[in-house]
Amino acid sequence: MNIHKQAIGVFDSGYGGLSILNEFLKELPEYDFIYLGDNARSPYGTRSYDVVYEYTLQAVEQLFSMGCELVILACNTASAKALRTIQQRDLPKINPNKRVLGVIRPSVEEVGLLTKTKHVGVLGTVGTVRSNSYPLEIEKLYPDIKVLQESCPMWVPLVENNEFKTEGGQYFIKKNIANLLQKDPKIDTIILGCTHYPLLQEEIQKYLPNRINLIPQGEIVAKSLKDYLKRHPEMEVRCSKNGEREFFTTEFVDSFEEKAARFLNSELKARHINL
Ligand code: DGL
User: Fold this and answer.
1) Which domains does the chain have, with CATH numbers?
2) In sequence order, which residues have a C-beta less than 8 Å from that of residue 16 and are 6 or more positions away?
């Protein structure tokens, strides 16, 4: 499918990346964006490295074939498991001028600016936690910061099914937060290391002591993209700017439109696509 436009591609396993896109639209409204959610194969968080890599590469190639020059993996799981291989092994073969960026590095940069105790918590999917990407990246930039992680396998299904306000939903949110804080009571900063979790922010805050900072991943990634475009004028001129947005899902279009409207707080039209 060729859309003949050099939109910025935004990819997630499902709806979570819309929390990142939402911030892109505030920070960079003039740019064109194509959002692709692989809802049919979500969640990625419990899948193996090979599967997440293969699915993510298919999505990136799809977005490239639609005209995108720059693709953001608005998914921590895909950023943790597929980004480096795509950047180092695949891009030079596919097209060395195109770029794929992730969400982990910009979030990590912020950590050192916020923590005072130097004890940081990460909440994420099983895949992101197992990959150890956050502790490894934090170690590179801030070797004196201690990182504790907690995987929250129920949280993505709770968001996807809009069940997080129920008694069952609250049980899992409270339990995972308590587990994390029990691992290290000195934690003063928490990264919501999954793009689905901002939808749970209100619920999460209920179970967190006030002294704990939550890192707003969407805003950080949006600022980082803006900064990237400033530092890379050769890419910036290749991104089209008509303020247009297109949405694709690998699942049912009607349920995508309905749920995506909750993330973006506005109505939208989506199209189906097979990867
Ligand atoms: N939104 C994805 C992330 O940021 C995870 C959702 C999933 O498990 O597919 O990690």
Assistant:
1) 8-102+219-272 (3.40.50.1860), 104-217 (3.40.50.1860)
2) 74, 75, 156, 159, 194, 195, 196, 197
